[in-house]
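I have been asked to look over a protein record a colleague put together. Alongside the sequence sits a line of tokens, each denoting a local backbone shape. I have pasted the whole thing underneath without changing anything:
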Amino acid sequence: MANYGTLPHEFLVTKTSYDPGKIPLGSDLRFNEEDKGLSVVDEIPEWAVNESKVLKVTLEAGTYELLCNIEGHYGNGMHTSFTVVPAKVKISETTVPPATVVSNDISGSVKEWAVAVNASEAKAGDVTFTIKNEGSIPHEFIIVKTDFAPGKIPLGPDNRFDEEGKGVFVPGEISEWNPGTTGTVTLKLEPGNYQLLCNIAGHYANGMYTQLTVS
């Protein structure tokens, strides 16, 4: 695990019966790691920005959350689900809901520090984006047509990229909006490679982008 954030984080492997993101928090905005509804298998203790750590664990079948339990981090979305199946079950036999791959009605979310959408491809023409700000601070959602690799649009000294610079074209955006609210925009997109991102200072560099192909 690499810490690409701007502050230290920890990484806990937690076996739990709680739904994702629903482990009860205390007044210190952390959860009790001795809670009867969960078991912390192991962890990478808090480590510094731009460093990576390795954790090797032996896991039983069950439902897990991979998360950070530093004050406020879990509540702000630093968790993901992870399922371990019995060793005798082939992965191909497990039931995995099919992902929506091609869509012109795209929904998703932004938060510190990620952009998530329900499609990786759209057809040329009108594409509608409906995006919720699930973070704790304002964000923006910019659609950028570019052949730069994901995360590699050059940044200026203000830790943003020039939206009128060479190699990028911005057909539209959802302007900066508040946490807990949803923004929407419909654009006519031509075929090409796009990045969906936040260009507030430092946000793109911290991982707030994802790819979209328009065919």
